[in-house]
Amino acid sequence: MDGDRATGFLEPAEKDAVLRHAQAWFPALGPPGAGGFDDLAFLDRAAARPWYGRTVDGARSFSSTGTSGHPKRIPWTSEEDAWYVREKRDLFAQWLAGCTRAFVSLAVGHNAGSAGKLLDGLGFEVHDAGLSSLDDQCAAIGALAPEVLYCSPSILDSLVAGLDARGQRPRSVRRIITNGEVLFAAARARAASFFGVGGSDVMDTYGSTEIGTIAHTCGRCGAFHVLGGLFPEPAPTEIAGGDDQVSAAPAAAVLAVSSVKRTSFPVVRFVTYDVVQGLRRSVCGGARRFTFDRVLGRCDDVLNYGELFSAYDLGDLIASCLPAARWFVFNPRNDLTIVIEGSEPPGFREALRDRYPLHSRMSD
User: Fold this and answer.
1) Residue 247 predicted with pLDDT over 70
2) For residue 320, what are the contacts with CB-CB under 8 A and spacing of at least 6?
3) Which pTM does this prediction carry?
4) Which residues lie closer than 8 Å to 117 by C-beta, 6 or more apart?
5) What pLDDT, on a 0 to 100 scale, did the predictor assign at position 15?
6) What confidence tier does 40 reach under pLDDT thresholds 50, 70, 90?
7) Distance (Å, whole) CA 49 – CA 43
8) Could you tell me which residues come within 8 angstroms of residue 3 by beta carbon, excluding any fewer than 6 positions away?
9) Which residues on adjacent β-strands are paired with residue 4?
10) How far is CA 280 from CA 97, 228, 253, 271, 273, in A?
């Protein structure tokens, strides 16, 4: 998507709200004499770099590899933490009505640090697995019989495999929430089938440490709904190093987000380097909102865990075509190479391109 179309995505009132927020909290972002939203530059990784690691009074810091591949400290004030937890409670409360026991396994990070607090505020009995072993987590699920699982997609996939290997098939689970790397369709279907829930009983939340929660999947329309106070727009493709990857999928765009909620870190035309499909305004449940169909992956030149694709999803695809094959992944010079033992079955490369439209520039 070119720059002219990007600047026309938001409505005048939305642009004005972002501009006023930026001028109030981050005046250094605007060029001298900036007269409007379109005068604000997109905050790509180079422009964002000086804002990481700053000391902000009363703020805690969390680390994220984000778009650099190196840990960066990102501040969150107590006021920001409060609305972050509150908006997730509002998002989950009705959907989780009638459930009382929750199992949380999100490892570490901003979301992991707040998950127990928000579920406790909804009256849940919560087991937070932290960094415990897979054996301990499977045992805890057996003992607690949770109705809600709140996990990263990769941990959820490990739990499915671990529980299945132990002959455990918990039927207490009624809702599954994921947060972290992208939840691909195969992993969603596998978890839903294993725990005996429907597709609308799985909610994927998408966000970043810089922004907070950006969007969540809707069981009614199937799209991602962008949360209030956030204004998404397509970044010009040249920001991501050209349009060769973005053009590989229809209606794909590099996502940039502005927030009128963040006050300790400038989320103002912030380039996420995530590629989403179908970014638009939609009406769902009687409300007009920003939506998109799915997260395709990242277009950054840095390979971070969970950001380009899920190894579990790749394993599922390989197993469906080559059930007994051994496979290896190498990352020399940040250029991912996959080696699979065995003869290539018909249609495998087409299946790979379809599953990973942005990351399958194949060579023999």
Assistant:
1) no
2) 351
3) 0.78
4) 85
5) 95
6) very high
7) 9
8) 236, 238
9) none
10) 30, 15, 11, 17, 18
CA angle (305 as vertex; 300, 308 as ends), nearest 5: 40
Which regions of the chain does DSSP assign to beta strands (E)? 59-64, 72-77, 101-105, 125-128, 148-151, 175-179, 202-208, 212-217, 224-226, 230-235, 252-259, 270-277, 280-284, 287-292, 294-298, 327-330, 337-340
What is the reported pLDDT for 249?
A: 67
Main-chain phi, psi angles of 64, to 5 degrees? -145, 140
Tens of pLDDT, residue by residue over 140-195, are: 999 999 999 999 888 888 899 889 988 888 999 999 999 877 787 888 888 999 99
When the pLDDT of each residue in the chain is averaged and rounded to a whole number, the result is 81
The number of helix segments (H) and strand segments (E) in the chain equals 10, 17
Which neighbouring-strand residues pair with 207?
213
174 alpha carbon, distance to own chain's centre: 22
pLDDT of residue 324: 66
Rg (CA), the chain: 21
User: For residue 8, which amino acid is it?
Assistant: G
Q: Quickly list DSSP for 65-89.
A: -TTTTS-EEEEEEHHHHHHHHHHHH
What 3-state class would DSSP assign to 318?
Answer: helix
- Residue (of 126, 79, 127, 75) closest to 265 by Cα position: 75
